[in-house]
Amino acid sequence: MHIGDICTVHTVYCTREETVQGAALLMRKYHVGDLVVIDSDGAGSAPVGIITDRDIVVSVIAPGLDPASLQVGDIMSEELLVAGDTDDVYETIERMRLHGVRRLPVVDASGNLSGIVSADDLLEFLAEEMGELSRISGWQQAHEKRVRQ
Description:
single chain, alpha/beta, CBS-domain, 3-stranded mixed sheet, elongated
């Protein structure tokens, strides 16, 4: 299965020029804990970073800085790992584990933002897979009963 099949396509994003306060308001409005930071050239929106509610707390609130005077580009995580929408789900899980990240922006073949996948999305997918696997035994027994009557 491809990561594009399970990612959240309605991704909340902002630009580097957005204030940290504006980013926090977007997180509040859309009930999310992160924003993908994009550069938009008019033809597309390429992800260049990510900012989390934790970034805001640790980098701005805790040291007593003014969130209205700082831009997202000042505090965002720039070492961005992304997944292609045709990447394999299990390979993506392994990449996330190796890099210790809980969220990955998903890009299309042109490098434009097409969604985001989180550890929670992947846990839900794996739980469904495990549920399907657990039904094999019962299906097999029912099938055997029908065939051998």
